[in-house]
Amino acid sequence: MAGETDLALLLTSMSPSLAQDEYVFTTVTDVKTALQTGISPKAMFVESEGTTLVLTVADTQLANLSFSGTYRCITLNVHSSLEAIGLTAAVSAALTKANISANVIAAYYHDHIFVPTDKAQAAMHALKSLTNEWLRRQ
């Protein structure tokens, strides 16, 4: 099933939802050893310097990994195509306007935005306002 590419449709139907868990970004040089601790990464990305893991705070503590800052995950509940143009830019611009940093991970079905825990509610408001702006244009 192909995802949506129409920017107006993506922005008017993105229906953001905020996960309850708090997440952290951490890095390990030996991912196999880290995984043997029983952690379950939300996301993982291999870079030349090490492997970035996105974990719940509880998993990070279980594996005794260091981190700085906690984040909440906002999922855009629209099946966006990996070839869609402008969704990440529009979301980033709305969050930038609200002075909120964003770490975006595009997965097969949805985009996931990690925002600082203390700004999660403001981020939700900014994204809902973005949807409302686009709905008024219709």
TrEMBL record:
What Gene3D superfamilies does this protein's entry cite? VC0802-like
Which is one Pfam family of this protein?
A: ACT_7
Q: Which residues form the CASTOR ACT domain?
A: 71-128
Which segment of the chain is annotated as a signal peptide? none
Lineage: superkingdom: Bacteria
Q: Which InterPro entries match?
A: ACT-like_dom_sf (IPR045865), CASTOR_ACT_dom (IPR027795)
Q: What is this protein called?
A: CASTOR ACT domain-containing protein
- Species for this entry: Paraglaciecola hydrolytica
